[in-house]
Structure formats: C-alpha cells, structure tokens
Amino acid sequence: MKNLITRAITGIAFVAIMIVGICYRGDVMVGLFAFITGMTIWEFSGLVNATEDVDINRFITTAAGVYFFLAMAGFCSGLTPSAVFIPYLVTIVYLFISELYLKKKNPLHNWAYTMFSQMYIALPLAMINLLGFHGDGTMTPAYDWLLPMSIFAFLWINDTGAYCSGSLFGRHKLFPRVSPGKSWEGSIGGGLLVLAAAAAVGYLNLHDSMEHVAALTIPQWMGLGLVVVVFGTWGDLVESLFKRTIGVKDSGNILPGHGGMLDRFDSSLMAMPAAVIYLYTISLM
User: Fold this and answer.
1) H or E element that contains 67
2) What are 160-215's pLDDT values in tens digits?
3) What residues form the membrane-spanning segments (predicted)?
4) In a 3-state reduction of DSSP, which class is residue 182?
5) Three-state secondary structure call for residue 252
C-alpha cells in the first residue's frame, strides 16, 4: 500500500511538472528537457560503465548530449545559426580520438556506447524542439505547445489503457522474450483509447479559438496517435531489451516507484522521432 501511494504521488508530480514545463513557455520547455537529457544520459552512462570492459567519459558524454539539445533548441527557435553545432561535432571527434591515448581495455565498447547515448537519447529528445518551434516567415519562430504535449499525452493514455486492458483481458503475450508482462490485448486496448483521444484533440483543435500551428485534420491526428502508440511500444521494448542485456531491473531510482529517467522516457525516445517523420511526411512542418 505504501509503495502504491508513493508511486501515485510521484506520478502526479511528474505529470504536473511535464504539463507546466511543456505548456507554459518555450524557454521553460527547453530548460526542462535539457535537464531531462542530461539526467538520462548520466544515468545511461552509469549503467554501461558498470558493465564489463566499458569505461566511457561520463561527464563529457553527458555535456555533449545537453549541448546538442540546446543547440537544436537555439537553431529551431531562430536564436542561433547552424554554426552552433560545430562545438558538438568537435566534442564527438575528441571522444573518438581520445581513446587512442587513454589506453583503456576496450576502446570499441567505449566508442559504441558513447555514440549510442547520443543517437538513442540526445537526438530523440532534441526532436521536441522541431515539434514545438515553427517558422512563420519571421526570424523568430513561435513556440506552440500542442504537438509536444499531445505526444506525451498519447503516451500516457496508451500506458494507462494498455495496463487496464491487459489486466482485464490479457491472454496473448506481445513480446515474451523481452517483456513478459505486455499482451496484445493490452496494446490494442491502449491503442484504441489513444485513437479516441486523438480524434477528440482533432475535434477540439478545429473548434478552438486559439490558433495552433498544428492544423491537422481529425484523421491526421488519429494517424499521429497511431504512430505514437506503435513506436512508443517499440521504445518501451527497446529499453527492456537494453536492461535485460546489462542485467538490471530498473534503470535507476530517481523517481520513487517509477524507476529511473530511462524508464520514464523510453517510449518517447522512439515516438518523438517517428512523430517528426510522420508530420514531415504529411507536409505540416
């Protein structure tokens, strides 16, 4: 019972911080997700450094990921030119060349996990800047919270729907080798709930007095919801495979009752890039 209360309090606080951070202002969103990026890469680096023959530079790897996020935010918001990415590229080159001189046991593992942290965490989280900042023909693109908030709302609704449906009707395992607790019934139930929520968002958006950049039709909103469900589920499974590979149950304990940062953002690491691809495909961004 105590663990359930702790989990509920942590969950409510987490959702509240995310909603305020995303919906209040663009600079607040950037600050929040720069922090999330740093904490997630720091956690990831600690996990891989605890495995055999891995010793990546935790501080520089984390700093590089945070810098990339901020550089993407600056570029997407129109505050900085594309040259802002040059220091990040220099850092990546340094992380490769430094292994020539450090004489560590397995440089190949260090290179692989260092680059994995950037591709798996820094790059996907930076995509929220593409979702939030939109050019309007001026030098300073406007920030619109609707798309970033919708992605996370769909992920949360999918998790809730999948848990409830799976608990009630779950019979057929979705991916037992990686995540024995997930069922096809749960995934379908979560997906249907998200489609309903996406249709509702589309309807409200069409009748909203506020002007949003994301002028999607109801079918397009439902398509976005489906993309988030499918790739969010894959994101969850990818993190489960990662944890099984290195032999841990939770990625951390920073969020009481919910595990670590990777545990909380695993679905978004696949859903946000997929959402960007989807939106670019239908020529909205």
Assistant:
1) helix 58-76
2) 999 888 888 878 888 888 888 888 989 999 999 999 999 999 988 877 655 666 67
3) 12-36, 56-76, 113-133, 145-168, 188-206, 213-234, 267-284
4) strand
5) coil
pLDDT at 103: 87
How far apart CA 183 and CA 197 sit, in angstroms, is: 21
Across the strands, what pairs with 133?
143
pLDDT (0 to 100) of residue 1:
60
Which residues face 157 on adjacent strands?
none
Average pLDDT for residues 64-83, to the nearest whole number?
Answer: 95
Residue tagged 């545990």 (tokens): 263
What is the C-alpha separation between 55 and 46, in angstroms, rounded?
9
pTM score over 0.70: yes
Residue 148 near residue 128 (C-beta atoms within 8 A): yes
- H/E stretch holding 3: helix 2-23
Please give the Cα distance from 187 to 165 (Å, whole number).
Answer: 8
Residues 6+ apart with CB under 8 A from 41: 61, 62, 65, 66, 117, 121, 122
- Provide the residue type at 176 as one letter: P
- C-alpha 227/C-alpha 232 separation (Å) is 8
